[in-house]
Amino acid sequence: MKGNNQAKPKMPEAIKPATKTEKPVEKQEVKVIDTTRQAVPYNTGNIPGPKMARAVMPAVPGKMLAKAKRPLLIVGSEIDDEEVLARVVALGRAGIQIASVGDSHKYLADKELDAHYVNLHALASYLCDPQWPGLDGKGGYDLVVFFGITYYYASQAISALKNFSNIKVVSIDKYYHPNADMSFGNLKQDVFIQALDEVIAQLPK
Amino acid sequence: MSVKKGSFVIEGLENVQINIGKVGAEDEQIAEGPTPRPEIISLRNWDYRILDRYNPVYTPTSDMCDLCTYGKCDLTGNKEGACGIDLEGQSARQALMTSIMGAACHSAHGRHLLNYLIRKYGEDFKIDVGPSNLQAPLTETIMGIQPRTIGDFRPVLDYVEQQLTQLMATTNTGQEGASRDFESKALHAGMLDLLGMEVADIIQISCLGFPKSDEKAPMAEIGMGILDPKKPVVICVGHNIAAPAYILDFMDKNAQFDKIVIAGLCCTAHDMTRYNKSAKIIGSMSKELKYIRSGIPDVLVTDEQCVRADVLKEAQKLHIPVIATNEKITYGLPDRSNDNVDDIIEDLVSGKQPGVVLLDFEKIGELVPKLAMKIGPIRKAKGFTALPDDEEFRKLVAKCTKCLQCTRDCPESLPISDAMAAAVNGDLTLFEILHDKCVGCGRCDYSCPSDIPVLNVIEKASQRVIREEKGKMRIGRGQIGDPEIREEGRNLVLGTTPGVLAFVGCGNYPDGTKDVYDIVEEMIQRSYIIISSGCAAMDIGMYKDKEGKTLYERYPGRFVKGNLLNTGSCVSNAHIAATTIKVASIFAGRKTKGNWEEIADYVMNRVGAVGIAWGAYSQKAFAIGTGCNRLGIPVVVGPHGTKYRRAFIGKPYIKENWNVLDGRDGSVVNIEPAPEHLMITAETKDEVMPLLAKLCFRPSDNSLGRAIKLTHYIELSEKYLKKMPDDWHVYVRNEADLPVAKKEQLMKLLEKKGWKIDWEKKKITEGPLRKVDVSFQPTNVPRLCKEVKK
């Protein structure tokens, strides 16, 4: 899928919880997911120290995003998957500003979102600086949420935020990110998509 | 000038003894700048200027410090440890230690070569690097001397070693505590690294007949598929040419090149081809484990640097004898330097010893070809290889349970289990793709709970593509000659050549080796000058276009726009950095000797050169990058570079960070962020290309040059990120800076941003940060201003 910037999300109703089957509605089973399992660093050796992310269920980052005054969603080069991209779009359409790092902007360019290209390493530096006016000149952020970034790259960038800033950082990626304040555990793709939908479901319509 | 060494006493002055060591012509030895042989804080003010604009950004891999017995200390959240150091200080200390390690490696390589070459050729052997008056630009700029003979480099390495010891001392618990000063010292270590590399490469170019600034250096074969495995195969691994040179000489003398195949892995390969064109290149360090496990090598010769720690262990399994030729890597093997060659061969062929340490070059030269001739046929008859046969392969791929542990341990998170599943159905294409992306570390072997030797499986499945892996690389040319600088310097400083991009470093690529080829191809077609070295130079030559030609065959090797140069091995990186000094000296007439700050200030403000180490893994690569930073050259690293834990990132939104002085009158001028960063990473190749174009902007660009650079920045961003850059307008000073083809369209966009446009005259009347001034002399150093405005 990488490099396929023609991919069009086929899930305009992405805010709805995902279901895996097309069974009749009365028999539809809503799969209960647990995103706190497998909360060990995705890359085995990526153990930073005594403070590691608290594993959370999707409702937690969902509610934090809903309550945040100025949240920022950071997405990277791994949003090329059709289903993942649809959730980025849904989050953007819910009014969350997007920092499109890496080459992810090519997937978002035609989506009419409040999305801004920025280099992740530079962004990590700026987020640690209280003087930074933000991506749109309207000030800094009180919550950073991210997914879809090369695992180790994201992990390193947020280690700067963990140690040198006061910003809350929440991973809603399919990997457990120890350097975040909160994170999902390591998830299979279908659970990951469902978790994103549950995050989105918490946002004001 | 001829002076003999010695000492004498003067009659009547019995207590006075005069010693004569080395005397050079006076005009060559007088420093022209204020800092010949800078001590560890001599250039601190310059470093602070860098650090004030390009703030260190720390991304720790560990929140702990365990360097002393007070610890382990938890420094999370920038807490202080037991000794008082906080995480920022600890991160900066690690940056310093990393730079020292890298600088020590290159300088020790230089020292080993210097001692050997002085023993062999004498200290008065003349330096000859090609058509250059400025033969040793880094040595002149740092030391304030102009070396003429290889012996002149003795005090240079004495200085480097002394400085590195001073620097290392500051990392002990209870020494330096300020992150800012750790960084200044790291920059010092980086500079020393450049110096050590220059010494190493100049002396080997001069003494060993390497190409001397040769833009038409011949091609060498490269790739895992180039060797004839039926012949005895000798593989030299590492960075130091001293021992392989003797092997090549022996083979030459005995006409053995048609009987034995000899090739190199990593930078030794570069220097082998520079020494003797019959040598071949397998590839970078990423190929070491893969090639050893193929079983093709019959003898492995190791020297130093970038040699895997498990070479002996892996070789032993396949009965490949290892000859360790350098004191730095001895693998616990017996030192047989004083033994008879035939006795050693007998012990190795019989398997009595898996390898030996052999430090006598004459013996190495004789032993290795003889050993290859003797053990080669035996090994071939037995068919040693670590790769499974077809039946074993089928069983192994079927064992995969898709637990994904291999992917989690893989540095590149490769989807190995998908390839296993496809292979079960007879489809090997996913494995063939993995072969290019795999960095050959072997971590997957240890992680597999089903005991699948994953790397061997990948390589077995990729035999078809491996057989076709045959590329060409132009042999390392050495320095850029003065005539080339005279021809191109003006274009670089004015910006009409959009930039010099130096592709350097190792093979820890985030998404495969071909990325480097793709980036180079895009940028060279846009007339950037591409200079390469080390493993990056090899990897550029691994791929062909539809006509079957590599980039080296498609593009010439002169230092002019749209050319592709290979300077040589890792230590040849020095010439890339030195090219910017040559531009300052030859094109702009800046004095070099002992004048680092002025030269670096010139480079930062006027020479659009950027380094890119897309697959950097080593401490050496970090030291090179840090040295380039002190010289004012920005460096971009691949995403793995965040694990170096420190970057130098500019903040374009802090206006006062971008003030410079106008050298004509000392007035303060607020400039566009150029260059915006000094060390930064990017996530993908699509992101890095517009970033490279952006980092080539310099305040000195004239309008034509700025328009060319802006064209590439905008086009690359539109092509790869599907957007106009948000900050393109920041680089517009007047309408002449706009790309001609898009002028009107861009002016309309500027008008929307609130700029005032006189449409009748097609002129910008209000909006830019500053005006174009062709005589502008940007500088960050007050003392360089002719007069200082009060």
Short description:
The complex is a heterodimer of chains A (205) and B (790). Chain A contains 6 helices and 7 strands; from the N terminus they run E-H-E-H-E-H-E-H-E-H-E-E-H.
Protein architecture, described:
The complex is a heterodimer of chains A (205) and B (790). Chain A is an alpha/beta fold. Chain A is 29% helix and 12% strand. In chain A, strands 1-7-6-5-2-3-4 form a 7-stranded parallel beta sheet, sandwiched between helices. In chain A, helix 5 (151-164) links the parallel strand 5 (143-147) and strand 6 (168-171). The model of chain A is unreliable at 1-25 (pLDDT under 50). With 790 residues, chain B is of the alpha/beta class. Chain B folds into 3 domains: 44-209 and 473-662 and 673-700, Rossmann fold, CATH 3.40.50.2030; 219-382, Rossmann fold, CATH 3.40.50.2030; 390-467, no CATH class. In chain B, strand 7 (233-237), helix 7 and strand 8 (261-265) form a beta-alpha-beta unit.
- The largest sheet of chain B has its strands arranged as 9-8-7-10-11-12
Query: What name does CATH use for the topology of chain A?
Result: Rossmann fold
SS strand fraction of chain B? 5-15%
Stretches of chain A where pLDDT falls below 50 for ≥5 residues? 1-25
- DSSP, total strands of chain A: 7
The count of domains of chain B is 3
Major β-sheet strand ordering of chain A: 1-7-6-5-2-3-4
Helix run count of chain A: 6
Percentage of residues assigned to helices of chain B:
40-55%
Strand content of chain A: 5-15%
Chain-averaged pLDDT of chain B: 95
Distance between the amino and carboxyl termini of chain B? 49 Å
Bulk shape of chain B = globular
Number of helices of chain B: 29
Structural class of chain A: alpha/beta
CATH homologous superfamily classification of chain A: TPP-binding domain
